[in-house]
Structure formats: structure tokens, C-alpha cells
Design goal:
With 286 residues, this protein is an alpha/beta fold. The chain is 42% helix and 15% strand. This is D-psicose/D-tagatose/L-ribulose 3-epimerase.
Length: 286
């Protein structure tokens, strides 16, 4: 059975940080067949919202807004100043999403990416409770703009808080706000999940966004990912959202260092985007 989904690609595949100039990628993204573009908001000041809105409309692309959560944007830090920094940043993301017509802001917003330590059960509980309390406040802020949040699991090397679909589902349950939804990323799932299909079923109807690349963060269809299991899982939860390719270029040294990409994964980033779309389109329609 064919999946009723749309396809997107992150501009991180080519460049970072996203700015108003990054809209130069939009015609190419549309030409390759994509329906949507993921806009990672690293610095909101670099984004001229009307300019980006015009470029989206001109190219017939839907926006997906993703947050970037470095050390200063940490809702589990014991210093409330870090929480406020993250709230202020997310308010800017919500404003961008609302003005561009996106339905949610996505990302691992519970903690700073790279905060991966062996902590005591007592410390884990403190940080879990901070994440729950602060994400309730984030949900309230999203609600004002008519938006949801898509919370992402990360692998164990990037966070010690939320690594699996089961942990994500528990976090969403504990937040207990209608705006709290799920994002699943195949790269992280290939590290953490015994079963991709069961992981998708675990989050169920909370799933509002999907990101994919191969197990080695390369072009979909060229690695060890169990795409049949992906399809069974997405069919089981009746997923009708967007499936986006998220990967990175080694040419942007700061971002490449953060995600540990030390060499090119493909001969060209354009080829990554074209071949990835071709594979996903065929896979979804089978």
C-alpha cells in the first residue's frame, strides 16, 4: 500500500546557518521534487520572514521549522537563566513558524544537544522533572500561536535524557499538554531502537514529523536501514505528514564537528538530495 505522505529536505544538507540568502536553494529543492523544506533556526536574527515567505510561495514549498539547541538553550540546566534563554529563543521560533504558516516547531528541545553523561537516578529525575515542567511552559507559548511542538529523540552520544520512542512517549505523557507531539529521526533510531516498526507504533498518533537518512547519515536507500519496517510502522499509525531528509555537509566545519561528520558522505550534496528523493518516492509508492 502506498503511503500518503509528503517529502522534505533540510537546508542543513548544504549549508549552515540558515539565513535569508539560503532561499537560493529553494528552486533547486522544488526542481528535485520536494514538497517541503526544513528551515533550521540557529539564529533568528538572520531570517527576514517576509523574504522567506515570498520564496516559499514562489517555489510552492511548505516550511518546517526546526530548532537548534546548543549549551545556552538548556531546559534541564539547574540555573533558570538557561531556561529563560531557551524560552526567548523558542518564542522567536514560534513567531517565525506562525508567520510562515508552519504548524509546529521541531527539535530535541528538552535539553542541550551534546549533554550526554552518566548521572545518578536522582539527578536524572531532577532533570526529567525540569524538562516536563519547562516543556509545559513551552506548550503554553506554542498554544498562543496556534502551534504544536514536535519533540525529537536523540541517540545516546548526543543526549542522556530521551533516546528511545518509549522514553519520548513517557515524556509526552508526563507533559500532558495537547501541543506536545513527537518527531522520530531514523538516524538516531538505527542506533537506539531494537525495532523501528515498534518504535513508531509506540508514539502512535503523537507522531507529527519524520526525519530520515541512512544508518551512516548518508543517502536513503544506500545503507542498512530497514525501510520495510519503516513502512509497516507508518502504515500502522496512519501517518500522513512529511518525511524529511536530514543530513549535513562537511564543508560547514562548526556544524560538521557538532555531528561528527569528518568526511564527505556522498560525491555531491545535490546528488544526495536528488537520489534521496528518488528512493523515498519509489519506496513510499510501492
Amino acid at each position: 500500500m502506498a503511503l500518503d505522505v509528503k517529502f522534505g529536505v533540510s537546508t542543513w544538507l548544504w549549508t549552515s546557518p540558515f539565513s535569508s540568502e539560503t532561499i537560493a536553494l529553494f528552486p533547486k529543492i522544488k526542481e528535485y521534487g520536494y514538497d517541503a523544506v526544513e528551515i533550521p533556526v540557529e539564529d533568528p536574527d538572520l531570517i527576514d520572514i517576509p523574504v522567506v515567505a515570498d520564496a516559499l510561495a514562489s517555489n510552492g514549498l511548505a516550511p518546517i521549522i526546526c530548532g537548534a539547541f546548543g549549551p545556552t538553550r538548556d531546559l534541564t540546566n539547574e540555573d533558570p537563566k538557561f531556561h529563560q534563554t531557551c524560552f526567548d529563543y523558542l518564542d522567536r521560533c514560534f513567531d517565525i513558524a506562525a508567520q510562515l504558516g508552519a504548524g509546529f516547531v521541531a527539535g530535541p528541545m528538552y535539553s542541550a544537544v551534546g549533554k550526554a553523561r552518566l548521572v545518578s537516578p536522582e539527578q536524572k529525575k531532577i532533570e526529567w522533572n525540569l524538562a516536563v515542567t519547562n516543556l509545559r511552559k513551552v506548550c503554553e507559548r506554542a498554544r498562543v500561536q496556534g502551534l504544536e511542538i514536535a519533540i525529537e529523540t536523540l541517540n545516546r552520544f548526543e543526549t542522556d535524557l530521551i533516546n528511545t520512542a518509549a522514553e519520548l512517549k513517557q515524556l509526552i505523557t508526563d507533559i500532558n499538554e495537547p501541543e506536545a507531539k513527537a518527531l522520530l529521526d531514523g538516524f538516531h533510531m538505527n542506533i537506539e531502537e531494537p525495532s523501528i516498526e515498534e518504535a513508531i507504533k509506540t508514539v502512535g498518533d503523537k507522531l507529527i514529523h519524520v526525519q530520515v537518512s541512512e544508518n551512516y547519515r548518508g543517502t536513503p536507500g544506500t545503507g542498512q536501514t530497514n525501510w520495510a519496517a519503516w513502512k509497516r510502522g507508518l502504515e500502522a499509525v496512519n501517518y500522513k505528514g512529511t518525511i524529511s531528509i536530514e543530513s549535513f555537509t562537511p564543508e560547514v566545519k562548526e556544524l560538521a564537528g557538532a555531528v561528527c561528520i569528518w568526511k564527505p558522505l556522498v560525491p555531491s550534496q545535490d546528488g544526495f538530495a536528488k537520489d534521496g528523493y528518488t528512493f523515498l518516492k519509489s519506496w513510499a509508492s510501492e
